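protein under study:
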Amino acid sequence: MAADVTATQERQSQIIPLGTRNGIEMAIARRSAKTLGKIISKPDSPELIHGIKIEPLQIYPDDRGFFTELARLGKGLAAKMLPDDVCKIQVSLTLTYPGTIKAIHYHAEQTDLWAPISGMVQVFLYDLRRNSPSFGAINTIFMGRLQPWEILIPPGVAHGYKALGVEPIQLVYFTDRHYNPADELRLPYDLPDIAYDWETQHK
């Protein structure tokens, strides 16, 4: 009995609570060794964090350039992005210089739909949701010009990215809420308890 209590206390000491917002209990499952977590190489990978969804962009090239469709509100990854009394769609664009890291962000209300439209990004995802089957899991996704994917990020999943290569990246992102500073929650990009490895992998 005492051994069970000790084991439970040890497990709990490895959990750093972040509080409950919008009905989502969030926490960090402490780790010490740096990691990339699971590198996602297929949109339907079984190792994806629960609730993360990926769709490849359909590129239609011709002799003038190319065309692609980023989103149809109410369909595909944007199926729940229909404006109503709660859902207020915002479409934003950010440009990021090579080597820059933008992380770690998370939301209790907002869902993000990311579509890198130039360059390449290394996307970091971390499941903060205590009740999620993938709580504490890390995913790394390389996407952009060489892998034209879109990614849906639900509330409670921490996220960020690093701009790779030698050119600025441009990221279009749809959100199902207008910008709300109170829901723009942050952690340090290099938080030791998450121990994400942002370094170039010299292998």
Q: What stands out?
A: The chain is about 5% helix and 40% strand. The chain has a mean pLDDT of 93.
